[in-house]
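Ticket reopened. Same input as before:
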Amino acid sequence: MSKNESLRHIPSVEQMLCALQQDLRFAGLQHAVLADLLRQATQRVRLELSLQSKTEGGQYSPLALRERIFELAMEEKSRLFQPSLRKVVNGTGVVLHTNLGRAPLSARARDQVLSVMKGYSTLEYDLTAGMRGERYSHVAGRLESLTGAEAAIAVNNNAAAVLLVLAGIARGREVIVSRGELVEIGGSFRIPDVIRQSGAILVEVGTTNKTRLADYEAAISANTAAILKVHTSNFAIVGFTSQPSFNEIVELCRKNNLISINDVGSGTLLPLELAGHHEPTVQECLDAGFDLVTFSGDKLLGAGQAGIIAGRKRYIEKIKQEPLLRAVRIDKLSLAALEGTLIDYATGNAGKLIPGWEMLKLTETELRQRAEKLLRELSPLLPDGWQGRIVPTSSLSGGGSLPAVKLRGYGIEILPFGRSASQVEALLRDSEYPVIALIRENALVIDVRCLRPGDEQIICAEIVRAAGRAVE
Ligand SMILES: *Cc1c(COP(=O)(O)O)cnc(C)c1O
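Engineering reply: fixed in the latest deploy. New output:
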């Protein structure tokens, strides 16, 4: 049958809907949804026919043609029910991978989210008074006791926290920032833009590598409201560099009646010393005397998306009056995750309870054992000619913490036979259970640091599946 003839045999959507009335494959679908699937499938068949005609000429009988459309409609149907936002296996070794959703939640945080999302909650209800309560009250006390701050508030994310702080205390006035700290984070958060958006006026001082206290001092005017320090989260300036210490900045602000702000980015509550590098804790920044400290909820803290502002009560009160707060308020699920995580910190055992911390602290021996176990499970399943072995890896903590620190770990390296590593890497991504792997010198590498319980089985099954699939 020629292509043109085949095209004439494509049944109408109405005819197909009739034929499918008793077909269990499409049971339970609304009429309009099914019609839409059939339309999409028909379009794909048209495309197939036009491609085939260039090679061997169309070749469907009317019945086969209809069945082919139903088959494609089934594919469209499974796509319809597959969420785009879904679990992946993180084989990159980057613990707080921004593209892969940053921090995984602890068991307690997950339980909190689940219990709050299932029904009603105390979101803005005061159980004691039996009347309207405050959304921010659930975490304020916990944040204060954990950080030592006089007051604290949680908002949508850290970008919002910085925006809100500046809008609340510096709108129409000057904010001094070192040129070495005018950073861009995650492609869309640029400090100069955020300052502009807040209505504050940016005053840049110093140079990229060196800013002296005298530079800050010389920039102070009658219209200066604050000095803002920003953690240069995703890069490190090394070599001939200097910045005044936290204490010097705070002292200068005090002498001149300025507000000292520190955007610490990742904001750890636990001391983090890795490979000789030190990440300042939120408590250290507050102890140094900063009036306001801002940080993310889903980086080292280990909760869901959130931004936290901690510091002096009088400024937090002022910030709470800012109308922008309503637009950047935290939602109840993130709030539940945050409170659950803060309870983990309150137990004193956060380093074990919060997955990101556990992964950061895994020793090379533990990682090597984990990689060996995975390889033992995978090896017998590998097709003929494929090779697997243990390799050392180095990864980043991610999430804007410790930008200069390489975490040493282990992974499994797979050398596929008959196809390239990048073809296998792509097949592993193209799945209901995607595995995100690395390519290193024509080999596929899966770093085992960030594997979650059950991920090993997924990796084995997906590699076997990828090996059996045709490469396009
Ligand atoms: C990550 C980061 C931000 C942005 O935080 P989000 O929670 O992603 O909005 C802002 N400032 C610094 C220094 C950061 O590291």
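Residues 157-159, 185-186, 189, 230-231, 233, 263, 265-266, 296, 307, 400 surround pyridoxal-5'-phosphate (CB under 6 Å). The chain is about 40% helix and 20% strand. Please confirm and we'll close it.
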